[in-house]
Design brief:
Layout (H helix, E strand, L loop, with lengths): L1 H24 L1 H27 L4 H33 L4 H15 L10 H4 L3 H15 L6 H13 L3 H9 L2 H43 L4 H11 L5 H18 L2 H27 L7 H35 L5 H7 L2
Helix pairs in contact: 2-3, 2-7, 2-9, 2-13, 3-6, 3-7, 8-9, 9-10, 9-12, 9-13, 10-11, 11-12, 13-14
Length: 340
């Protein structure tokens, strides 16, 4: 028995390693596929509304959804690239201002002279290199736009086959077993669809409100920070925090005023708190309860596999995995491991 446990553990470690290597090497194909799965669940309510409520033929409904998806993604790509490129080129100009602000803060705090200088890192910080890093990262974050055609192809087949799995299960199993499996599939589809669709709507609303607040305060690159807010909002807690830090730091550089930047941060935190603690729980109901450890593991794992785009998709994919495990008795232990 002891040997079997050791063999099972060793096989599991090897299997995880092999899966990780395959996912990393197959990124050019698998990343568009996973992205298509994400869009499939987000757009499924729209597909059902067009076909069931408005009685639009399935083929025409798919064409409408694809055109809408392409338009939104293309618009986001243009906005993100143009704003991000301008941000990266403007960023080095704020280098002297950043250094002066840190020196002023050091003098105001009247820190005692010691061998350890908490601000020593500023002297070694090359703003030009940092701007170049931001510029190179833009292509990584939105690299899926170069694979947009492949994403749409996957999406076509997924939407065209929606609802056919029920018939296949009914034809392949006994009536009792088919009823159980179809109920399980329906439950998984409903839970994933509800989470991702509502999370997307809430993320877009959060991004629009962030843009509005930044425009009112006169912060540059408000649209860019809004898009970043939408993307990072899929990462619970950590993502929304990072999304507020960026405009706060930029406001300090732009206005040469710490307190005005603080007011920007305060308003962003208040609006996000209202959405996160009041609006979102009422709309989405009981949370899925992913543990912080599982979220961190997902971020590190998918970040290692596919970089920043993988980190953005990490939590949605973990949510899908948790919902699937929760609907299979054999995988209940994984559901418990991923829960709070």
């Amino acid at each position: 028995m002891e040997k079997n446990k050791i063999l099972t553990l060793s096989s599991s470690i090897v299997a995880i390693f092999v899966v990780g290597v395959v996912l990393r090497l197959a990124k050019p194909v698998l990343f568009p596929f996973f992205l298509a799965i994400f869009f499939y669940f987000v757009l499924s309510p729209v597909h059902d509304f067009l076909t069931d409520r408005l009685k639009i033929p399935r083929a025409l409904a798919i064409v409408i959804i694809l055109l809408f998806t392409f338009f939104v993604l293309y618009l986001m790509g243009v906005i993100f690239f143009s704003s991000g490129e301008k941000f990266a080129t403007e960023f080095p100009k704020y280098g002297p201002k950043f250094n002066a602000m840190v020196n002023s803060l050091q003098e105001q705090l009247k820190l005692p002279k010691s061998k350890w200088d908490p601000f020593a890192w500023v002297e070694s910080l090359d703003i030009n290199k940092l701007g170049a890093f931001v510029l190179s990262s833009l292509g990584t974050v939105v690299s899926f736009f170069s694979n947009l055609f492949l994403v749409l192809i996957f999406l076509i087949f997924m939407l065209a086959g929606r609802g056919k799995l029920t018939v296949k299960i009914k034809n392949s199993f006994s009536p009792h077993r088919a009823l159980q499996l179809n109920k399980m599939v329906e439950n998984i589809d409903h839970q994933v669809q509800k989470y991702l669709a509502l999370k997307t709507v809430i993320s877009i609303v959060s991004g629009l409100l962030a843009v509005l607040i930044l425009v009112i305060f006169g912060v540059d690159f408000a649209v860019l920070f809004g898009v970043v807010t939408v993307l990072l909002n899929y990462i619970p807690n950590i993502g929304s925090l990072i999304a507020k830090v960026f405009p706060f730091l930029w406001a300090m550089l732009q206005f040469d005023s710490f307190w005005k930047a603080v007011w920007v941060l305060v308003v962003l935190v208040i609006v996000d708190g209202v959405i996160g603690m009041i609006v979102e729980p009422k709309i989405m109901g009981k949370g899925l309860g992913l543990s912080p450890l599982s979220i961190l593991f997902a971020l590190f794992f998918w970040g290692w596999l596919w970089g920043i785009p993988g980190m953005i998709l990490a939590v949605p994919m973990m949510v899908i995995l948790k919902i699937i495990c929760g609907n299979f008795p054999e995988l209940k232990f994984l559901d418990a491991l991923l829960s709070k």
